[in-house]
Amino acid sequence: MTRRSGARRIGILGGTFDPVHIGHLRGALEVTEMLALDELRLVPNARPPHRDTPHSSSQDRLAMVRLAVQDVPQLKVDARELERDRPSYTIDTLESLRAELAADDQLFLLMGWDAFCGLPGWHRWEELLEHCHILVLQRPDAGSEAPEALRDMLAARSVADPQALEGSCGQISFVWQAPLGVSATRIRQSLASGRSVRFLVPDAVLAYINAHGLYRASN
Ligand code: ATP
Predict the structure, then answer these.
(1) More exposed terminus of the chain, fewer Cβ within 10 Å: N or C?
(2) What ligand 1 atom has the least distance to the C-alpha of 186?
(3) 112 close to ligand 1 (CB < 6 Angstrom)
(4) Residue 19 covered by a domain
């Protein structure tokens, strides 16, 4: 791996984090260690206001993500998408991040295989690689037939070894990761039926959920 001294390696993982759970956190930490990232930023997505109910507000989602990473030096929270008054396109987030980084800092956009396959529907998707590398998190059991629209880009930009991604942006690689069997949907369902979600979220997040009465059936 060639690294110019001083260049930082920064990962980005977007999500609704409603709520953040151990699947997000373990996945983020494993990628951080595997790629020797200097930091990985969890970026909570804004949602249209009418979709905030019955789930938690942007403010609560952000507070929970902050609590989840408070003792983990490599994991950070980037609230820029919540600070805008409308949902952000990923290209906007990348442009805004890039404006704050040194030109040779390496940016790694993490996304699951399903999200990657949907890339051709994203706003200005062909410009994403001008700002970042894309790191596709592949489940060992996932199908791997990419949509036609992505074949040329994959042929031109794929690098087999994610640790060999070079430069500040422009390449795609794959990380094989067995996700933990946990989802925010399942956590919300458990809480709504009065079941415990202990050990599925960090204790500090659980305390916040309880203190604020989040995800209860009556909310
Ligand atoms: P929901 O159940 O509400 O759809 P979720 O648990 O899938 O939510 P998101 O906030 O949508 O969580 O997740 C953001 C990203 O985190 C996803 O795109 C995915 O890459 C990753 N992720 C989600 N769940 C897991 C998991 N169990 N293990 C590893 N990564 C995960």
Answers:
(1) N
(2) 2
(3) yes
(4) yes
